[in-house]
Specification:
Elements lengths: L2 E10 L5 H19 L6 E8 L8 H7 L7 E5 L10 E10 L9 E2 L13
Parallel strand pairs: 1-5, 2-3
Antiparallel strand pairs: 1-4, 2-4
């Protein structure tokens, strides 16, 4: 039975620069795709958040650049919790799949590995 499953991921950049945000987002989505043998045609939607210190580019633009052109995408701001990881891009992919949620592979890259060490990729 096909269900909607969530795939979480996060990564960081060194600076608030459009090229870095795009490259890190592409790396994150490509890692999630590889780990799950995901076909973007099976993605229901994607929600990106960025920390308040990132505003040079929309992460969704990077998804479009790698061919996720038919996937509904949205970006938002992460809650500015004092002491939280800086320059962080987070993603929640809603994936239509027969795979059980326990079999979904998440991807936390770069400094974001500290957020969920068990999901580091």
């Amino acid at each position: 039975m096909t269900a909607v499953r969530g795939i979480r991921g996060a990564t960081t950049v060194d600076a608030n620069e459009a090229a870095q945000i795009a490259a890190a987002t592409k790396e994150l989505l490509e890692t999630i795709t590889r780990l799950n043998a995901l076909d973007p045609r099976d993605v229901a939607s994607v929600w990106f958040t960025v920390t308040p210190d990132l505003d040079a580019e929309f992460p969704a633009r990077a998804a479009r650049d790698i061919g996720w052109s038919d996937v509904p995408l949205i970006c938002g701001r992460e809650i500015p919790v004092p002491g939280a990881l800086e320059r962080c891009i987070r993603v929640l992919v809603h994936w239509n799949t027969d795979r059980a949620q326990a079999d979904v592979r998440h991807a936390f890259l770069r400094a974001a590995r500290a957020l969920r060490p068990e999901w580091g990729a």
